[in-house]
Amino acid sequence: MAEQKRLRQIARPFVVDGPTGVSVRDRLKGLRVEDEKVLRAVGAHMGCLASRDLARRVRDALEHSTDTWAARKRELTVLSSSRWAGSVTSSTHDQWGLSRRAQHRHLQSLDAGIWMLRHRLSMPIGEKGSRGRPGGYRSKDEWFRKSRRLAVLEDRYERVRARREAGRVSVVRGGRRLFNQRHDLAVAGRTADEWRIGWEATRWFLTADGESGKRFGNETIRVAPDGEISIKLPAPLAGLANAKHGRYVLAARVRFPHRGEEWRDRVTGNRSVAYRIHLDTVSGRWYLDASWTRKDLPVVPLDALRASGVVGVDMNADHLAAWLLDEHGNPTGGPRRFDYDLSGTAGHRDAQLRHALTRLLRWAEAAGVQAFAIEDLDFTDSTTREKHGRRKRFRQLVSGIPTGKLRARLLSMCAEAGIGVIAVDPAYTSKWGAEHWQQPLGSTNRRTSRHAAAAVAIGRRALGHRIRRRTAPPRDDQSDRRGHRTAQARPGTRGREETRPHVPGPRTRSMQPDAERTRATSASNTVWDAPVDQAWVQDSLLFTGEERFHYASG
After folding, report:
1. Under a CB-based contact definition with an 8 Å cutoff, are residues 348 and 287 in contact?
2. Against a cut of 0.90, is the pTM above it?
């Protein structure tokens, strides 16, 4: 009981909501020189207005209101149009909110580091940790250095907290990473001109929000069902128009090979579609992104997803470990491993994840399951250097697991395949999976990995079963008949995992263990040979606490 009290409470599994938005991309082929000039001019002009609006929004801080938002939009309308101004202010609001949330997470990270430092500094030097908590520092020198770091983190925490209370955030249009590359172009592998071109391109603003009821779902960047693209030019650039009503028609056309029919249905029905035009400065190619929201998505109940079993998936830094479980929580077939390599560029990493998840989905569809079981992972408390300071490789391993990208990609791909996703609490899945399932699922020809056993634990928790498996029944004619433990136990069954305790001394039911065993007093091997007047005496040590309570009350 004392051991159970130390275990943290396990959260219930839940069905993860599917993606609420869709985004597709197509390349703008066949652009003329005049088209590129117009796109650059519009992007630079609107990007300058977006930078001004963002700076003003940061200055407003917590004094922001609907009135200040309307005032900013009126000022932008004079220099562009009402719809361009609405897109700019909406994007500014999203950027400020994202920076605000990142600031809150930074405070949480600093608070976790400060708490861990105080905990370790309060312990004697050289004391070992226990129960998942690190112990004291190894030497006086390390203790002194960590005490100085604690003062640094506390000062940093107070400065960040003061900025948050004042509503001030730090936002870099174009990205902080690209901004910092300017200080060391040799490491980034760029020249000053290349960096300048990329910096200016990322700060352009060629984004238009959709509007239902308007022609083709967007009045600013309009894309017809046949792929024709026309842009409503801002007021100062109206002289560059080549069509009526101050519009410019591009020579390039799009067709959206992926989800093209879905997009065409939306624009034909005049439903809102947002567009974004951007330039890849490395390849020199222009792209158009179309995005829209999904509403009234069907929600499948948890019990319905459990009806045909689940596929437990354990996410790791270099592979996915999966195992198919039936509705009773029994592993069927063999484990599957789907490898991926997350080194290299972002495009290569994304392609590796898509390839691994595609193979996982095809295997699940062939098996006929309706749900995946994954862990609801959050490594915010495990990646801090204060908790695993010397275990640098472990921190790198944990940080390298692409939990966010895998989950987002898996949800989007499962939504298209009609497969649900069940998220479970990740507590003790690897530990208990290896303890109860790694050895029993292995054989002389196949060794079960710790990750595959964790996949079984994840799947059982998603199905509502305990991770611990039932023990094998005892041999015939020793305690019970074979078969009483082979059926699957429900979560509420009492005494489902206990085994018969070993009692020292002779195995007899009619005499005490310390009594002298003779031929006259020895118990018979069978029930039929037992004397009629011999009373049946059950040793209390042969029962567990729950069994004694059951028989005493019964």
Report:
1. no
2. no
